[in-house]
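Help!! Second protein's tokens look totally different from the first
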Amino acid sequence: MMTELLQDQIEYYRARAPEYDEWFYRHGRYDQGEEHTRQWQWEVQQVRDQLRSASGFGRILEMAPGTGIWTAVLIQIGARVTALDASPEMIKINRAKLLSDKVDYQLTDLFSYAPQRQYDMVFFGFWLSHVPAERLSPFLDMVQRSLKPGGRLFFVDSGKVDRSRSHTGTANLGGEMQRRVLKDGRQFDVVKIYYDPAELTAALRRHGFDIEVKATENFFIYADGLKSS
């Protein structure tokens, strides 16, 4: 059952790739007016500024890079980025958007990924909330193994239910599940967990990270910390 769910989630993001940026940039059915968009953009910029607050990294591992929204920042602060995604459609958009020789793309299912080296930094954006609760501990163990001692971990994710879901047909199914509807009407069931920052901080510290999860005013949680030496 879990394997089937995770495969369906991959298929959802493959199908969603052409319209993913509409969500992030608040276009089309995600547009909730100028005030909402300004606040969203301001909070995105807060997170982006924090991500840029340190640079000079050698190798960065980005998990689930999607269309390249955050990859574009990572190539500014690191020498090379290894980008792991299970969607060839997302990788194609990312590659075409950035046209960067600093990114090494790998078509990879993160739930079966085993790191072959350690990186100076690990980043993931809007991915952790799609990791089933029963897979969170193994996933964080894998992240920990992927980082050098003292390496930087940074992530950003949804802080609370996105109000745009009322315009897109998104429905909570109970527990950690949501039903998502694409523009063409196709429906997919995916994992979506809205973490309490304090509880997630505790989980990360149990897995060997010196880190604190913070929240922006309305939309996001993010964390910037280090792997304990």
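Here's the second one for comparison:
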Amino acid sequence: MNTLKNKVQLIGHLGYDPEVREIAQGRKVARMSVATHSSHRNANGDRVSTTQWHTVVAWGRTAEMVERMLRKGTGVVLEGRLVHRSYEGKDGQKRQVSEVVLNDFQLLATGAKAA
């Protein structure tokens, strides 16, 4: 049996311009928020739409490509892996976050709608 992989694919739109910063030795990291949408019919037959926001992080060359190519509202197809981590906030409280670490992305064609 092949080894199972941690793989996430999202199709959505950026909620804001990527936040890019330079860390040790000129390496870049980019953070962005991507909205995905879904809809279903409730028990009354009414269509209900929901939006989920996903934090996506890119490192190195991928972060550089994100910085050059992506802006708020851009439609993208993303592929990465899901990571859960914890950290201590400035207030001393322990926080936990889930993020998608980006491996690759493609721009959605203009006018295309996210599924």
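Reply: Different proteins will give different token patterns, so don't panic. The first helix runs from residue 60 to 69.
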